[in-house]
Amino acid sequence: MFFPAVLVNAPYGGRGYGTALEPASYPGAWGYPNNTVLVGNPAPNGSATGTFFPVKVSVERLTSDLEFGAGTNARCDASYGVSVAPPESIGSAGWVLLGPGNASDALEPTWSNFSGFEGDPVSPHFENGFAVSNLANVTTCNAPTKLLTVSARPATVQIQFRLGGQNVTVAYTIPFQLQFQYSFPADFGTWQVDNLSAPGGPGGGWAFSYSPCP
Q: How far apart are the C-alpha atoms of 3 and 17, rounded to whole Å?
């Protein structure tokens, strides 16, 4: 299965750039098993891009896990656990999720298929598009270029399996440190922002919806 290391949206008319800091201990990451690696990914003018890497994924049913600590010994909320192992060969794939020139990221795909690459070609489902404005707008109307740097929490993906005769969807958080830079051109417009790392969000950077200056 191909996991996204970093997914980047570019504001319409501007640019986006994202990095993922990957611990050496993470199976399948480029530095495994010796080095921590910083992977960068650019996106121009209203596009969305991703850098993906292959990994072996297993899903197991949890039958007797209990919460730690004093209390009622209530069972954990999750019914399934995800384990990750390195693939036979370490590699990566740069991928265009949405071509340039889009005023909104609302139609961004939520999965990718890497047919022709070694291993399981399907990615887990991810949410990286614009859904709702949940942060103050960014505007450059009658204003100069703006360059913003954003730290983000790790992204959570949805892994879908068929296990024991039933379809299963398991949430999994990829433990990479993410940071993004966004450039907004001078006197160009206003961008609504969906902060994907807002509470309840899937993690990751920002998604955008653009409108021109009056």
A: 18
Confidence of residue 59 (pLDDT cuts 50, 70, 90): confident
Among residues 118, 126, 57, 77, the alpha carbon closest in space to that of 97 is found at 126
Residue type, 188: F
Q: What is the pLDDT of residues 80-116, one digit of tens each?
A: 778 888 887 666 778 899 999 999 999 999 999 888 7
Query: Tokens 């990566």 identify what position?
Result: 92
| CA angle at 105 for the pair 100 and 107, rounded to the nearest 5° | 100
Residue partners of 214: CB distance under 8 A and separation at least 6: 141
Q: How many Å separate Cα 208 from the centre of its chain? A: 15
Given a contact cutoff of 8 angstroms between Cβ atoms, the answer to whether 75 and 65 are in contact is yes
Structure tokens at 194: 């969906």
- Cβ neighbours for 130, distance < 8 A, ≥ 6 positions apart: 9, 104, 105, 106, 108, 192, 194, 207, 208, 209
- CA-nearest of 148, 158, 101, 149 to 128 is 158
Does the pLDDT at position 29 exceed 80? Answer: no
- Show the DSSP H helices in the chain as ranges: none
CB 65: neighbour CB atoms within 10 A? 11
pTM comes to 0.88
Tell me how far apart the alpha carbons of residues 160 and 22 are, in angstroms, rounded to a whole number: 24
